Amino acid sequence: MQGDPLTHGLWEASAPPAPDTAPLRGRIAVDVAVIGAGFTGLSAALHVAEGGRSVAVLEAADIGFGASGRNVGLVNAGLWVMPDELPQRLGPVYGQRLLQALSDAPSVVFELIARHGIACEPVRHGTLHCAVGARGLAGLQRRASQWQRLGAPVRLLDARESAARTGTPAYAGALLDQRAGTIQPLAYVRGLARAALAGGAALHSHSAIVGVDDLGTSWRLRTRDGGEVEADWILVATNAYAAPGSPWPELSGELVRLPYFNMATPPLPRALRDTILPGGEGAWDTRAILSSLRLDQAGRLVFGSIGALRGAGRAIHRDWGRRALARLYPQLRGIDFEHEWYGWIGTTADAVPRLHSLGRNVVSFSGYNGRGIAPGTVFGRELSRLVLGQVGFDALPLPVVDVARAAFKPWREGFYEAGAGLVHAAGARW
Ligand SMILES: Cc1cc2nc3c(=O)[nH]c(=O)nc-3n(C[C@H](O)[C@H](O)[C@H](O)COP(=O)(O)OP(=O)(O)OC[C@H]3O[C@@H](n4cnc5c(N)ncnc54)[C@H](O)[C@@H]3O)c2cc1C
Question: What is the pTM of this model?
Answer without folding.
Answer: 0.98
